[in-house]
Amino acid sequence: MKRISLTQYLVEEQRSNNSIPAELRLLIEVVARACKTISHAVGKGALGEVLGTADTENVQGEVQKKLDIISNEILLEANEWGGHLAAMASEEMESIHPIPNRYPKGEYMLLFDPLDGSSNIDVNVSIGTIFSVLKAPEGMAQPTEQDFMQAGTKQVAAGYAVYGPQTMLVLTFGNGVNCFTLDREMGSWVLTQSNMQIPPTTKEFAINMSNARHWHPPVQRYVNELLAGDTGPRGTNFNMRWIASMVADVHRILNRGGIFMYPADLRDTSMPGKLRLMYEANPMAFIVEQAGGAATDGQQRIMDIAPHKLHQRVPVYLGSKDEVARVTAYHQE
Ligand code: AHG
Ligand code: MN
Ligand code: MN
Predict the structure, then answer these.
(1) Which residues line the pocket of ligand 1, CB cutoff 6 A?
(2) What DSSP state is assigned to residue 143?
(3) Which positions are annotated as binding Mg(2+) 1 (predicted)?
């Protein structure tokens, strides 16, 4: 196999289609390096004393794990000094993180979920990091929270790292989706899948079924039809998978299709769904669409949503096109 490193891939993309400006290339390399560091910490587990709970809560009232905080710190420190960013925002921080004054500022803004799948950390199940890149408004070196309120269609890049049996980095710049595998001994990311494609049809779905009694009628109807299998209206059997790390569930769907759902439900109308638009839904929607899939909130395309706050939550339906279209249609009926 001819090995193409992440650096070579980025340089060649920059040269051939000028699709990746130098500053964006640096940004991606820095994020990838930070993910390598996080992967190392994850891999150490108890030996690195990184497991377990910290004694803090994040802005969303969720108890933080040690690795949530460690990963957040790694990403902040790696990205502060390079001169490629104007500001950052993280699921684990209440407000945006400006670049300290002692460093030069760049034109990009980086948003991340430093550690996705927190409930899986202590049980040695795949977890990940999700990130999204926006442009700061022209000439704006000190962006405010308002400057982050851009629809997902404005993303210039998005990606995730999954820390599983292998550590992988999946990336899009709006020109298809590529996957890199971390060569742990060499410390380099190697291109292992180009132009990933999600099959339009699927017989696999992912949803937390324990919330079924709280779902709205369109979700009840859609999932009941799947569960009815070959004796129901769909006339075929469906299989279910739920890893409870969005990164790992999306990674499976990118590789063999499927639909992933985290709907809003009847419990708390002030909290429409669990997943966060800016750190989870938008970057994953960008990746999934670039791989030929679809992503909606049940009503509209996720990437068309106009954000109104940094930690906004949205319902999420993403993956194989035909199934996302069906469950979205049930909501619109
Ligand atoms: P996070 O660990 O960043 O808070 O995200 C967890 C999310 C997502 O990764 C996953 O799909 C979902 O929460 C799991 O929810 P359940 O606990 O309902 O299974
Ligand atoms: Mn998450
Ligand atoms: Mn998280």
Answers:
(1) 91, 113, 116-119, 208, 244-246, 274
(2) -
(3) 91, 113, 115
Per DSSP, what are the bridge partners of residue 134?
Answer: 109
Separation of 246 CA from ligand 1 center, angstroms? 6
Rounded to a whole number of angstroms, the CA Rg of the chain reads 19
Whose Cα sits closest to atom 11 in ligand 1? 246
C-alpha span between 60 and 135 (Å, rounded) = 26
How do residues 94-117 score in pLDDT, each as one tens digit?
999 999 999 999 999 999 999 999
User: Which residues keep their CB under 5 angstroms from ion ligand 2?
Assistant: 113, 116
> What ligand is nearest to the CA atom of residue 68?
3
The annotation status of 117 as a binding-site residue, yes or no, is yes
> Closest residue (by CA) to atom 18 of ligand 1?
208
CATH superfamily of 6-193: Fructose-1,6-Bisphosphatase, subunit A, domain 1 (3.30.540.10)
116 appears as a binding residue in the annotation: yes
pLDDT in tens, 163-183: 999 999 999 999 999 999 999
Residues in the chain: 333
d(CA 211, CA 222): 14
Judge if 6-193 and 204-332 fold alike in CATH terms: no
Question: Minimum-distance ligand to the CA of 115?
Answer: 3
Quote the CA–CA distance of 136 and 120 in Å, as a whole number. Answer: 34
Domain residue ranges in the chain: 6-193, 204-332
Pick among 3.40.190.80, 3.10.50.30, 1.20.1050.10, 3.40.720.10: CATH of 204-332 = 3.40.190.80
